[in-house]
UniProtKB/TrEMBL annotation:
Gene3D superfamilies per the UniProt record, alphabetical: Winged helix-like DNA-binding domain superfamily/Winged helix DNA-binding domain
Residue ranges annotated for the HTH arsR-type domain, each copy included: 9-105
Organism per entry: Microbispora maris
InterPro entries found in the cross-reference section: ArsR-like_HTH, HTH_ArsR_DNA-bd_dom, WH-like_DNA-bd_sf, WH_DNA-bd_sf
Protein name: Metalloregulator ArsR/SmtB family transcription factor
Transmembrane annotation, as ranges: none
Classification via Pfam families: HTH_20
Cited CDD domains: HTH_ARSR
Length: 133
């Protein structure tokens, strides 16, 4: 019988771009500012960071290419706005892992509860971790 290798599931290039964009603390902070303050000009956003303007522009470019922000011209100003759809995709991607760990922690809680019950049965009293007044 031939063994068929399991398919390698790789994120799409778009997902790779989103995760790469989110890897930077500077870019996560830009997203936080846009989430909390709404659309902001490049000047307003850049004023909150101590870095050269070309470096800051590069962060905005990465966010724009990942679809996490959009840019709109308002006269001479460029306004940036948070685009939530890629973040919803990240949440959807992470959801099975959250369920996995929730199930594991629930199983651990049940195991510890059962162990505590067994200990109480052996000693005739239930062990408590709380202090009594």
């Amino acid at each position: 019988m031939d063994v068929i290798p399991a398919p390698v599931l790789r994120p799409s290039p778009t997902e790779d771009a989103v995760f790469a964009a989110l890897a930077s603390p500077v870019r996560r902070e830009i997203l936080r500012l846009l989430r909390e303050d709404g659309p902001r000009s490049v000047q307003d956003l850049a004023s909150r960071f101590t870095m050269a303007r070309p470096s800051f522009s590069e962060h905005l470019r990465v966010l724009r290419q990942a679809g996490l922000v959009s840019e709109r011209r308002d006269g001479r100003r460029r306004l940036y706005r948070l685009e939530p759809v890629p973040l919803a995709h990240v949440r959807d991607w992470l959801d099975p892992y959250e369920r996995f760990w929730r199930d594991r922690l629930s199983a651990l809680r049940h195991l510890l509860d059962d162990t505590a019950d067994d200990t109480a049965d052996d000693t005739g009293t239930r062990a408590h971790s709380e202090e009594r007044p």
